[in-house]
Design brief:
Blueprint lengths: L12 E5 L3 H7 L4 H22 L3 E8 L7 H14 L2 H6 L2 E6 L7 H13 L6 E9 L1 H17 L10 H5 L12 E4 L18 E4 L9 H13 L8 H11 L1
Parallel strand pairs: 1-2, 1-5, 2-4, 3-4, 5-6
Helix pairs in contact: 1-2, 2-3
The structure holds 3-methylbut-3-enyl trihydrogen diphosphate (2 copies) and magnesium ion.
Length: about 250
């Protein structure tokens, strides 16, 4: 089935929790790492689809700070896949800027080099920004921000009243982009797993059972179509929102 998308209402920022690689593989009698291989292939495919739809920011949860506690061979396989798939050509061909959020220091020198090179070479691309959250978790990010604030305060550069929502937003890893409009989680779990807690305050959530390697164009369109049917109220009443929309049009 195809979903009618309103082209003028494409979410500017889509964040995805790409979950279900391991179960996708186990279901087929394959090792979990085979699911990650398929998962990476799907990242490329979904990145291109989002670019063509006019999405401006796509933020992909790739590896959480908690994922380090998985079996070491799985962790290594994921890291190797990252190095092998940071495809400059894909980003240049689609005019996509690449960014990473998360702690770069804990990554291997090879991964760090790939990330830095890709960020540098794609920095002037303007059609979409693809962000990977790598060695990322929201509590880690918020803790970093608080440390920074305390440091600034200790040096006399920050007063209590200067700690505003804007201050916090502009010190998070995500400071270069707007908050997600739509958060998609594949793989059937109904949780946020330490992802973009601050930024998702008013995001629309879409959960689906499909495992990430099977999340294809139709699923993406269904997620966006569902988003387009929602009314975002940001604390206002339905009538207030309708009134604002009528005045704007
Ligand atoms: C998501 O898939 C990818 C990562 C967390 C790296 P999983 O590997 O979590 O797959 P499941 O949830 O075990 O099926
Ligand atoms: C979240 O998936 C992290 C990524 C998709 C990278 P997990 O599979 O790690 O989350 P939990 O453990 O099911 O909450
Ligand atoms: Mg999982």
């Amino acid at each position: 089935m195809d979903y009618e998308l309103n082209k003028s209402q494409i979410p500017a920022h889509i964040a995805i929790i790409m979950d279900g690689n391991g179960r996708w593989a186990m279901q087929r009698g394959l090792p979990r790492t085979a699911g990650h291989v398929e998962g990476v292939a799907n990242v490329r495919y979904i990145t291109e689809l989002c670019t063509n739809l006019g999405v401006k920011f796509l933020t992909l949860y790739t590896f959480s700070t908690e994922n380090w506690n998985r079996p070491q061979d799985e962790v290594m396989a994921i890291m190797d896949l990252l190095v092998d798939n940071m495809d400059l050509d894909l980003f240049m061909r689609n005019n996509v800027r690449f960014r990473m959020i998360g702690g770069i220091d804990r990554l291997s020198p090879a991964v760090q080099a790939c990330v830095r090179e890709l960020e540098e070479k794609t920095k002037n691309n303007s059609r979409m920004t693809a962000v990977i959250a790598l060695n990322y978790s929201s509590r880690w990010e918020l803790t970093q921000t608080m440390k920074e604030a305390v440091r600034e305060a200790a040096e006399g550069r920050l007063l209590p009243d200067e700690v505003t929502e804007e201050y916090i937003s502009s010190h998070l890893q995500t400071k270069f982009m707007p908050d997600p409009d739509l958060l998609i989680r594949t793989g059937g779990e109904l949780r946020i797993s330490n992802y973009l807690l601050w930024q998702c305050a008013y995001s629309e959530f879409y959960f689906c059972d499909t495992y990430w390697p099977d999340f294809h164009e139709e699923d993406l369109h269904r997620a966006i179509a569902t988003y387009q049917q929602r009314q975002r109220r940001f604390g206002l009443t339905e009538a207030q929102v309708e009134n604002t929309n009528t005045t704007e049009n």
